[in-house]
Amino acid sequence: MISVNPHLNEEGLAKLYENYFSYRLDDKNSFEKRKIMYPIDRDWISKFINKGKVLDVGSSGGQFLSTFDPKKWERYGVEIDKNAAEYAKKEYSIPVRVGYFPELDFQEKFDLVMMRGVIEHFSDPISVLKKCSEVLKPGGYLFITATPAGDSFAFYIYREKWHLFTPLDHLHFFSVDLISKVLNKLGLYLIDRHYQYEETPYANPKEDYAKIKKDILLLHSGKHDQIDISPSFPGSIMTAVWKKKS
Q1: Residue 153: which H helix or E strand, with range?
Q2: Are 183 and 142 in contact (CB under 8 A)?
Q3: 130: domain CATH number?
Q4: pLDDT digits 0-9 by tens, 24-45
Q5: pTM higher than 0.70
Q6: Which of 22, 103, 149, 195 is a good FRET partner for 233, with 20 to 30 A between their CA atoms?
């Protein structure tokens, strides 16, 4: 387990994310890449479950949820930013509750709970995983994707120059095995894992491999200061699904 220490508490995080949604919309390059990634993530989880009641934790403006067919899915979101929640309602007719997920009460249970690029942003991720287990139906699925992998080769090589190491908002760096140890105690077990790379719009295998080879040689020569920020690389982003025991 790798964590940023010290890191922002919940009050600080709330301040940090006050206007984040407008920034996300303004960053057109990243927005277009995420639009490519959303169906890729949806299709991967659809191999395991393809209908039911779904809750997206950290749903932003509902863009990812909007790729789930409303004829098959009853779609809900949770978001800390009220502007993002209002956007999801206006653009996609998706109801999104505003608040800190572990503190919210849910009357309903869900067939699928998702966190896409979210778990690493919580200061207390264990409480979040516990809440996921609570709101899942027996036999339901927990889907975590687009999450930096703390046991990745690129992180090991680049350390603070890893492009996914952003200490203000990425507070914790997990592995699938570590999350599985926590979830096993909560009655969930791992079904499958995947590390997206070549299918993503972020990958350029020829350039990425050439850069990391060059940077490893620089490290061995004691020239750490000459290394730039890391490229995308296999194993850096984890995707996994767990199932709650019936």
Answers
A1: helix 153-158
A2: yes
A3: 3.40.50.150
A4: 888 888 889 999 999 999 999 9
A5: yes
A6: 22
